[in-house]
Amino acid sequence: MVASKSPSFGASLGRGEFSTSRGGCVTEANSIREESGSSATALRQVAIDPNFVLDESHHAWLVFGSFWSGIKLRRLDDRTGMAGSPQIYSLATRRQPDNAPAAPPGLPPNWEAIEAPFIVHHGRCYYLFVSWDLCCRGIHSTYRTMVGRSTHITGPYVDDQGVPMMQGGGTPLLSGNSRWLGPGGESVVMQPSDQDIIAFHAYDAHSGFPALQISTLVWRNGWPRATLSDQP
Known about the structure:
Number of strands: 16
Strand content: over 45%
Order of helices and strands: EEEHEEEEEEEEEEEEE
Helix content: under 10%
Number of helices: 1
Number of domains: 1
Structural class: mainly beta
Largest sheet: 4 strands, antiparallel
Shape: globular
Distance between the termini: 33 Å
């Protein structure tokens, strides 16, 4: 699964087939989801950060982040991997905070930022991991990782207080500390031995350089727990 982005904030999600696991020859590459244009609506609907998901019935789905317009989910064709039903489900969005700062010139406000979705199944629930706020700004990065859960892949997802993620809910999983800032852009690996892990990036609080981090996931009372290192 690939994503591309244009200078005008248009974006496309596509699928490619390769002759080997090392890449090489592309045998097929087709668009799954596209957004383009420079209107306010198009700016809010950026098709980025795809995550391919199989539900418990082994049906294929694509969850992706639109940054300003929230997290979306779409059914894929089980045989081809291409877009199936045209219906798009909205899974999560942000709630406007009190005294929210003004939007940057020509752009929607930064408080709407939510992206990098990843869905896994654990126990009786689907868990939606997302990244809030801003990445890729070195020591000014404000990324943080949140999670919600649902008994259905299409939602509604709620946090540990019962607040729907479509109303700005989200259980904090990873936040910055004095050593590492902006943990997010997460991927989760579920393993049969219950040694589940989460991989994400964070920024050195002194240099601003990005680094890959990997944490085990521990499940307590139906919710995941992870740790951000406090070491260099």
